[in-house]
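Revision sheet: structure tokens.
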Amino acid sequence: MLRSYGDSRLFGEAYGPNLPRVVWLHGWARGAQDFTLSANALAERGIGSVALDLPGFGASPVPDVAGGARHYAELIAPALREIASEPVVLVGHSFGGTVAVVVASEHPELVSSLVLVASPVVRKRGSARAPFEYRAVRWLAEHHLVNEVRLERARQKYGSTDYKRAQGIMRDVLVASVNESYEAELQRLEMPVTFVLGERDLDVPLAVATTASGLVPGPTTLHELSGIGHLVPLEAPGELVDAVAKALHQ
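Predicted:
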């Protein structure tokens, strides 16, 4: 059953009769339901958890202002304080992982351990720039030489799938997010950090997790899951449960 957290600005699903020891943060354009299998499996082990819908997804309303993971972290922190009186294992998939890194960096008293699942916490080397044609149209729009209709046509032609689907303020949130990188936050993490990613993940390759783990001063563990793609919570919920269970006992 969904309930609100953090002054009714976030909604989430609680699992298990015990006090939550784990909080789950989903990826971009996903929802709390991605963690249903893993959360139920933990509940069977007597471990309570809460899966949150991030702002603008599922039952949670869109944020009042646009911002990337750093802004989302400040929206999540009050909910974490309400959910648990003790630090939790914070699990973040993809975009949720970037939010989790910032939360743990800025509010370490709330997080006992991090599990980052296929999370783009550092930029891939050689990340492609937007096509020249799109950058040209965008420059023309900024100088009021083409109208919004022409700009939107270029966005739909050259933008990513996520960008094309995002509307209004959520498109601005996406743009802010993809332009962030979290080296500074990673370098402040003293708690244990577990990296979990799929061998077949085309969005977040092994090199991203390897680079990120090298920046963390605290203890790190890296699990690459054979035959698994980007949607680890759906493709490998059992392996994710095992990683979280180990993090709980670190």
